[in-house]
Amino acid sequence: MNWQDQHVIVAGGAGFVGGHLVRAVLQRGARVTVLDNFHTGMRDRFAGVSNARLKIVEHDVCAPIDLSCDLIINLACPASPKKYQAAPLETWRTSIFGAVHLSELALRQGARFVQASTSEVYGDPLEHPQRESYCGNVSFTGPRACYDEGKRAAETYLMDLHREVGLDLRIARIFNTYGPGMALDDGRVVSNFVVQALSGRVLTIYGDGLQTRSFCYVSDTVDGLLALAETDDCADKIFNIGNPKEQSVLDLANLVAEMTKQDLSVQNGPAAGDDPRRRCPDISRARAILGWSPKVSLEEGLRSTLAEFRGRLS
Ligand SMILES: NC(=O)c1ccc[n+]([C@@H]2O[C@H](COP(=O)([O-])OP(=O)(O)OC[C@H]3O[C@@H](n4cnc5c(N)ncnc54)[C@H](O)[C@@H]3O)[C@@H](O)[C@H]2O)c1
Questions:
Q1: In 3D, which of 81, 67, 292 has the Cα closest to residue 191?
Q2: Does the reported pTM lie above 0.85?
Q3: Domain boundaries, the chain
Q4: Residues with CB under 6 A from ligand 1
Q5: Cα separation of 289 and 26, whole Å?
Q6: Among 113, 163, 214, 238, which is least packed, fewest CB within 10 Å?
């Protein structure tokens, strides 16, 4: 793919991952149009970016849109449980109607379509680590279902569109991604710990802290999404994009405390509803077909995250 010839639509581009992805795509020389309704995105996300090839359009992906484009990357959807549980109907509509309207636009334009799906499609997994073939263990009426099931239904629709009418499709099942630029009130575990530690507050662990996650630094996730967009020959359409190093939430708390030179003082809160016990991607498919694997260690990623959050908090 020659990025300089590409007009790329990034839906949800004013969000956390979008902010990094849009900058990376601009750096490759493409033209970028961000579509965002700023539900969880930041209006000043690109305040420091002066680039005539970047256009920002306020648009809710639940409505159709017509624009010329060569590639659509659909990130539009609140990703933090705190944010999507506060707006379950909107989350559900965004997942489904956003995927429908944007994929139809891709078909009309002959554009490639990259969908940001999620490890949440595996629910509270009974298989470990999770391969793309695993069908998951999702509570479909629980408090996370608007997001988990919304993303699953979007995958169903997109796979049918690919099989029936040849949508040029890639689906990234993204696992917990963290890094600079997350909203201070994001509510996910890394940003919670970082904000609490930097403010000298007690770190709150929901549940016993033995639940595991696999934390992927945002530049690695962005590289994975770009590799997916660039790779022409992929018979498989669905790829886990995440860091296979599994950590307990308690280990993460210890590391954040150590790096911020705080005595670890943990307050255990009630476990979140339907919180998965273990989460770890099998990334052999992405390694083999995309030649992608994460490069940034948790310590390195946390160092950059702490530095950027420290700047915003002061
Ligand atoms: N960050 C992660 O750990 C993670 C993990 C798995 C999947 N993902 C997926 O990656 C994508 C981006 O995640 P993020 O962490 O950047 O989330 P985010 O909440 O920071 O960004 C989402 C963006 O989508 C926009 N948006 C929401 N509803 C919209 C609508 N109806 N119309 C237009 N724009 C809308 C928001 O305003 C925001 O800018 C999401 O689709 C998410 O499901 C992220």
A1: 81
A2: yes
A3: 3-181+216-244+280-295
A4: 11-12, 14-18, 35-41, 60-62, 75-79, 94, 98, 116, 118, 174, 176-177
A5: 25
A6: 163
